[in-house]
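One such shown below:
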Amino acid sequence: MKNQILAFLIFVSCSQTVLAQKGRGVAEGTAYYLPRTELCFTVKIEKTSYTPGEFAVYAEKYMKLNNVGMKPTETYRILGLDVSSAGERDTAKFYVLPTDSKHNIQTVDLDDNSVLLAVNAEPKNVKMPVPFKPSPKPAPLNPRDYMNEDILSAGSSAKMAELCALEIYDIRDSKSLLNKGQADFMPKDGEQLRIMLSNLEMQENALMQLFSGVTERDTMETVVKFVPAKPVDRQLLFRFSKWMGMTDIDDLGGNPYYISVEDKRVTPSIQEDLLSRKKAKDNGGLYVNLPGKIKVSLYKGDEQWAAYELYAAQFGSVVALDEDLFGRKLFTSVVLNPVTGNLESIEIDNAKK
């Protein structure tokens, strides 16, 4: 979301600190911040939940199933990682853009955190990562909906388990006869055959849950945010446990995942004629970032997990554009990158008379 501010909005609450920082009193202007770059790691996690069946103790006896769990369990595993970056307000980079009668500044666009997006132009439209939305799961099967009268009226769990096993084997025999074309009542066409086999499969699965239990899988996302302030070597980023999922950073039950940040000492170039030749304290123009390139590496324990390069605002410098670009004789449109605060585009035209 953006807040469009008209050119003649009067900024009347500039503090003494701001005025001292700029070296001049600004009576009319728009206060703004430049951004710093935040790293966002979206970790996709699969949670597997196991619930033992009602007749789990009879699974080996009647269904020849070995190693069937007798207790509920939950396990987690990381499916993947998505990396993105975002801009957030850098409180150390606070400036005031003059919007008085001496400057041809008609619109100033800030985001909700007062980070400058554009001057005399439409801001850049940044696509935000789409939040993960799990697919709807089918309704769980209720085994009792598929029990016949004999099973439901059995006097003990052992007898119910025996009758359920017999019913499962009968269902399997029926499926086999249908597939071979030897059933007493064969369907008239392929669609009827498909429906009959599907219904038999559903009955078998529902009754088998009583012995093998139910395993459910859910996918979720967790976003880990990190704002690098300086180069770091294998700094702890988060912890993850097979049995608990994401854990607290100081919980030793989770395996460590580390981050390293290397300053590549590379910044984008900018036309010299756009820069102010005045001293910083005398300049009343527009300030922009020249972000620095960094290399980010992620480690799973001692193993490198991922690595990539990007530009981050806080690893570069701040430069001032020439104040004359916004004089009355020119109409200058500027668009900043909302993530890095660097000059995305600039157009300079003669002002319309």
